[in-house]
Design brief:
Blueprint: H1 3-21, E1 34-40, H2 45-48, H3 50-53, E2 66-71, H4 82-91, H5 112-118, E3 122-130, H6 134-137, H7 149-158, E4 163-167, H8 180-183, E5 186-189, E6 204-208, H9 224-236, E7 243-249, H10 252-257, H11 261-285, E8 288-293, E9 297-298, E10 305-308, E11 312-318, E12 327-328, E13 332-338, E14 346-349, H12 350-361
Parallel strand pairs: 1-7, 1-8, 2-14, 3-4, 3-7, 4-6, 5-6
Antiparallel strand pairs: 2-13, 8-13, 9-12, 10-11
Helix pairs in contact: 4-12, 9-11
Bound molecules: magnesium ion and zinc ion.
The site of magnesium ion has 9 residues, from helix 6.
Length: 375
Amino acid sequence: MNRYTFVFQALLLVAWSISAMGTPGDSVKERPLNIILMIGDGMGVSQLSIPYYFSNHEPVFSRFKHIGLAGTSSATHPVTQSSAAATAISTGVKTYNPALGVGPDTLPRRNIVEIVSDLGYQTGVIATSSVTDATPAGFYAHVPDRYMHREIAMDLLESEIDFFAGGGLKYFIDTTGRDLFREHGMTVNFSKLQKIEDRDPELRYGFLLAMDRMPAMLEGRGDFLADASEIAMDFLSRKDSGFFLMVEGSQVDWAGHGNNTDYMITEMNDFEEAVKRVLEFAEQDGNTLVIVTADHETGGFTLAAAGDYQTGTDYGTIEPSFATTNHSAALVPVLAYGRGAENFAGFYENTDLFCKMVELLDPNQKASRLTVPAY
Ligand code: MG
Ligand code: ZN
């Protein structure tokens, strides 16, 4: 090595060290304007692998470059329910299993929808269950028990949510004949999904297309999830304020509870189609962060080889199977694409999803790592 090469290399080293240090207090360089959080309820890594073996296209999940794994335990149990998990992701607080939007003390905690609404963002939730089910409700409701559907429905009316789609109409019906939606400045379509053409800026929009849960894919739900996501993205992006949208593939979890492989495959492929449409929006838009994750794994689902290891494995045949009808404590995948996606690589708790998202949307938020005791 001659003297000049040495000096050149030393300069390179200095330049590298400076760039690696970054600017203190400015760890978030690329802020997204919008965040779309997609939750596959009960979607572990084996469920995420379904499109790799049970579809005939390049899996959309491979387009995500920043991958993490999140712990899901609740404040009280190693195995969480969807309610505590939704609360962890939406408020950054670990709580007891059936709690929804409240901490271990049953007192309400501010959720990401409330935080970013105060900053002028538009917000929405979409689910293939009732919109009052635990996962979507975690983003607007505050109740001590996830099964308080009527109270949860009233919380949606009173919430900051600008767009919602899913089932659950029966929880909003008023026996005295009052139109609760109109009273709360909402226009709700009960018959079919359609693009929202002329938006009244004072109105909020909803689609409630079933009395309770939406039909399963096997029952003919069609492209509801992908179409509703597209309608929401179109609607919420009309203001320049930015938006936060939560999209849930709710029934992946029910397929796991039911140990039903066909149900699982069809629900996962449907969720993947919704992810594809959302990614297409994000790729075009260039200002959107897409996060795909789960609240927990359900079913102890595997894609094991057929046969028996002692008597002869058939490596050529995948025989999907389940270890349980319950949720499991397995870490869940986190896939991130777009602005700020690099913040989601690594191992962390589900409460960190809240911190990371809020830090990205609120420039005044100073690394508010809440100290929440893990189980
Ligand atoms: Mg759910
Ligand atoms: Zn479940």
